[in-house]
Specification:
Blueprint: E1 2-4, E2 7-9, H1 12-30, E3 40-43, H2 54-63, E4 69-71, H3 84-100, E5 106-111, H4 113-124, E6 129-135, H5 147-152, H6 162-165, H7 185-191, H8 195-200, H9 204-210, E7 215-220, E8 237-238, E9 244-245, H10 251-254, H11 260-265, E10 269-273, H12 286-293
Parallel strand pairs: 3-4, 3-5, 5-6, 6-7, 7-10
Antiparallel strand pairs: 1-2, 8-9
Amino acid sequence: MFRKNGRLKVSPIMRKNTGLMLTFLIFALIVPFTVQYKPIIFMHGIIGSPTEAEYLISTLQKVHPGTQITAVNAFNKVQSFEPLWEQVNNITKIVQPIMNSSPDGVHLICFSQGGLICRGLLSVLKHNVDTFIALSSPLAGQYGDTDYLKDFFPYYLKETIYKYFYTKNGQKWSVANYWRDPHHTDLYHEFSSYLYKLDSGQNSNYKNNFVRLKKLVLIGGPDDGVITPWQSSHFGFYDGNEKIKEMRNQEYFLNDTFGLKELDGRGAIDTHVIPGVEHVHWYRNSTVFNKYIEPYLT
């Protein structure tokens, strides 16, 4: 810009730049701004399948259009009783490519036993998971007479099934991998091939990988009816007298064996207690989704 004969002149370069700026402004006004949401991986529960994600998928198509959602199609129905390490090793091959192609990270939504599978994934992978939403998952173990137990092991009660679960053959069942009898802790430590291995801190890589999480969301409630105790969904569990020891009083938290205390210290754990929701309704309850899931799906 300069003056010539007392008049203000605009140079050709400035005129060109001004034109580019106007073009960009018009383009921005015409083309709608789209929000890019992180991909979501959903892991179903025991006796479940990808159909458990149908409500989630249909709802997200409305509120977060364009979101990439993968409902893991593996170890469905009775195959969900396969040993958990076998499930983790195979599901790794499904989720790893999704993570590799998502430089900004992904979210995990994992229901019931699926939450324990996701714990395994988060322990063995150098992942880029932003938020892990554990939806009514027995993260600290299971100890209760449920329909699943009665249907598949009709000759055992919760007080006696440890005699089978805490054997080499018993550990071939997924539910045995996280069966945590508070009256037989020594046998649990000796035979548990999955959950105790994740909790104990024996493999430092598990902790190093787990703390890569940015946010851990724990969802559960007293009317669940399957997860026993229901506080297991918040990393709480029974002591030897079947009294609840909440997460911050558990040894794995106090000793920070796999990273819970570290996550808690940086404010990365959100815990939600939601009454009135039965186990099979968590993944299709609109209140649960609207208040406790959707806000984390950035």
